[in-house]
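Design review, sub-item: ligand-bound model
Attendees: FS, YL, KQ
YL presented the inputs for the iron/sulfur cluster complex:
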Amino acid sequence: MEIYLSRTQGFCSGVAHAVTIVEKALEKYGTPLYVYHEIVHNTHVVNNFKNKGVTFVDDLNGVPDKAVIIFSAHGVPPSTFIEAKQKNLYIIDATCPLVKRVHYQAMQLSAAQCHTILIGHKGHQEVSGTAGYVKPELLHFVQDVNDIKNLKLAPDANVGYVTQTTLSEDETHEMISLLKKQFKNLRIPDQSDVCYATQNRQNAVKELAQLCDFIIVCGSSNSSNTNRLKETGERYGTKSIIIDNPEDLNLSLLEKIKKCGITSGASVPYYIVDKMLARILKTYPDAVVHTFDNPEKNTQFKLPPI
Ligand code: SF4
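KQ shared the predicted structure:
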């Protein structure tokens, strides 16, 4: 067997930023320390912090007044900031700066009284957060091309769009092409909202799909970018599976595989891929492992006041 490790491995800059914020807050304030929603969508990262005494909450009612609260990498709507301030919580905002950029675009569209089409998965924390920056009467959710076709907006309406940062690049491209056809005054952001980390990881999995006959995507099932990697692998013709814990991999799936790719979501610690590789090599000690240069530079976002 040959094993191909994806070019992109380890945390993206936004995840590294959020994880560092929790680590520094733990050092400075100790426990109890509260995090609103999972800091990133990865069970290993979350369980590691739980073991250190961090409390994760999905409702601010469960947080005592004046406590320290960290908002997760996915961002929150303005109403959550207001609620936290009313409880006199000390807020540390770990929202990824690339998600904040989308919030800013959304605010600009609303300030210009522009109908805002929010492309994303309804119910995902990032999408709920971004929706909060759009005036309710101007907000239109879409998840796919059918939703776009069903929009009740005139072709000459004042329309803009923002997207979730972790969508499929191919599907988003298709939806934006349709929006361009449907709305002649469409406002187009300067840069794609699908972030560099999502794009790099999807490009790397397309490369694996060409080389391999099976792809293992390390990541948690509630991680959007992890799910998009599996879908991308399959769209490009290669059976792909998501595995959160390396010990959960059913090794019999690899019996007839000649070339196996391994990739990981943007919130997966590097050691998980190492463990996955070690587990496979234990059964296939003669497997040849191929690696590639990682295109990502070590970008670091400025930390907020902690
Ligand atoms: S996947 Fe992109 S938007 Fe999400 S945390 Fe990473 S860099 Fe930020």
